[in-house]
Amino acid sequence: MKRFNLSKYVFLIGFMGAGKTTISRRLSRLCGLTSIDLDSYIERMAGMSISEIFADSGERVFRETETQALRDIVSQDEPMIVSCGGGVVTTPINIEIMKQAGVVVHLLVDVDEAASRITDKSSRPLFQDLDAARTRFAQRLPIYEAASDFTVDTFDKNTNAITHDLRRCLQHAGVLVDASESSNCRNS
Ligand code: S3P
After folding, report:
1. What is the pTM of this model?
2. Ligand 1 pocket member 26 (CB < 6 A)
3. How confident is the model at residue 150 (pLDDT cuts 50, 70, 90)?
4. pLDDT exceeds cutoff 60 at 158
5. What is the Å distance from ligand 1's center to 173 Cα?
6. pLDDT for residue 186
7. What's the pLDDT score for residue 184?
8. 141 in ligand 1 pocket by Cβ < 6 Å?
9. 3 or 104: which carries more pLDDT confidence?
10. DSSP sequence for the chain
11. Stretch 153-168: mean pLDDT, rounded?
């Protein structure tokens, strides 16, 4: 496997069902990178599932935990791919944290395609009915657009094609670097 390094953090954002977790895992395997899923990190921190956090403590507590998790991850100062929950951009400070630590990539999907990809709605407290999801999507789309440095379109593409496009985008931006090239660079 050819190995790559990241020059900074890569945050994948986008609506529920955009494929952030799947693509993050795929790219990290393909390129020998570390990846972390923000929701999984939160679940470990809280010792309960995302649905349980929403049911027991509500969205406000979930959002506070989400910001704390993001801060923890960037404080490690170890560039990696971070797949974020779809609502990460609804807390403005999160956008600042992500922008300071790296690049933000929007995986673009539409609500119908997202719904077809989400087979288990029980783990998504904010994707229970399609009409509410449409409204939420319409509110968020401009925020995803404003918060991101790049957009990777996922319409009608399989996982391999999306991963390929993301990889090219990151290489082009100089964020994903061939490890053999980066090891040739030394500080003088
Ligand atoms: C949310 C998206 C979920 C999860 C939580 C809230 C949202 O993550 O963070 O249920 O507000 O869009 P996914 O985007 O991975 O489903």
Report:
1. 0.94
2. no
3. very high
4. yes
5. 27
6. 45
7. 46
8. no
9. 104
10. ---EEESSEEEEE-STTS-HHHHHHHHHHHHT--EEEHHHHHHHHHTS-HHHHHHHH-HHHHHHHHHHHHHHHHHT----EEEPPTTGGGSHHHHHHHHHHEEEEEEE--HHHHHHH---GGG-TT-SSHHHHHHHHHHHHHHHHHH-SEEEE-TT--HHHHHHHHHHHHHHTTSEEEHHHHTT----
11. 96
Place of tokens 């449409």: 134
Q: Give yes or no for residue 19 CB within 6 A of ligand 1.
A: no
pLDDT at 2 over 70: no
Cα 87 to ligand 1 centroid, rounded to whole Å: 6
User: What is the arrangement of strands in the sheet containing 102-108, beginning at the earlier edge strand?
Assistant: 35-37, 81-83, 9-13, 102-108, 150-153
The predicted pLDDT at position 185 comes to 43
Q: Does the beta carbon of 87 sit less than 6 angstroms from any atom of ligand 1?
A: yes
Q: How far, in Å, is the centroid of ligand 1 from the Cα of 176?
A: 26
